[in-house]
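The instructor's notes for this session suggest beginning with a concrete chain rather than abstract definitions. Hand out the sequence below and ask the class to guess, before any prediction is shown, which regions might be ordered.
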Amino acid sequence: MSKIKRLERLLLSINSKKHFTLKELADEFQVSTRTIQRDLLNLIEMGLPIVSEFGPHGGYRIENDRILPPIGFTELEASAILYRIQMYKEAAFPFQLQSKSIENKLNHYLPDDAKENGEQIKKRLSVHLPLPPHHSLAPILLEAAVKQKIVTILYQMDNQKMYCNIQLIGMYSENGEWFCPAFCYSLMDFHIFKLTDIQNAVINYEPMEVKDFSNVTIHNWAAEISPKSYLKLDAEITPGGLPYCRSHPFLNQFLNKINENPESLKGNILVTYLEKVAEYLWPLKTNIIIHSPKEIKELHAQWAREICAKDEAILNM
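After discussion, reveal the predicted structure:
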C-alpha cells in the first residue's frame, strides 16, 4: 500500500476512534509501530490535532473536532474559501483560530499562481451584506478586473445605450447592488458603472495597453485615482463621528489627521458620485463640518428642508 493511500485510510480510521495506540494501528495496517509513528507525525504537520496521553492507559486521541475525510477542491473553490474567511479572522469572531487554520492549510497546498490569483481577488472584490441577486455578467467582469483586461460593455446611460471600453478597478456590493469603478476609454475618465445597467460584456484578450492599477484596489480606489471631473472633499470630523468614518468602506480612505484631534476627510471625489457621497456623509449629522464641496452642503440643506416640510404637514393635521 502506498504511503498516500495509507495516510488517507489512517485518517479515516483514527477519526472514527476516541482513543488509539500505536500497536493497535500497526496491527490494523500491518506495518511497524515506527512507521505508524512517522505517519502520525505527517498528519500532525498537516494540521490534525492529535494529542498523546501518558500513563498505563495512555495512547493517542484526536483533540476536540473529528476530521472530515479528504475533500478535493478546485483552485477557484479554494480561492473562494480563502476570500470568504477573511472577515472571520478578526479577534472578536468566535472561530478566529479555526479560520486561520483553514487559511494555512489551503495556502500550504495551493500552487503559487493560484495563490496570486487569490490575492488579486482580494484586491478587486469587496462584498458587503445584503448580497446582491445573481447577475450573469458578474463573473465576466470580476475576471476582467482580476486579470486587468479591457472589457467592452453595452451600457444604459441616461436612457441611451452605448458601447464602452472600460478597465475595471474592481467590484463592490452596496445595499444589495453591484458597482464597478473603472476607467472608461470612451469618456477618457473614471466612472462608476452600476452592474444592473450593463446589458452585455465581452473581455478583450488581445494585447492592449492598460493603465497601471497595481496600487489601486477596490479598497482604496476613491483616494488613489485622479479623475478629470472631480470636486474637492474637505470636512472636519468630531470624535463622535470617527467610528462611523473608520468603519465605512468608502469614507475611511479620506481620513487625514490634523494634529491629533479632530480628524478630517480630504480628497477628490467624482462629480458623477456626488450624491452618493452626500448620502454617506448624511448620517454624521452634527458630527461633521463640511467646508467643500458646496454641492454636498446644498444637498443636505435640501434634504433637511424636505424632512421639515413633511414633519410640519403632519403637525398641522
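Then share the key points. The first strand starts at residue 50 and ends at 53. Residues 128-220 form a domain with the SH3 type barrels. fold (CATH 2.30.30).
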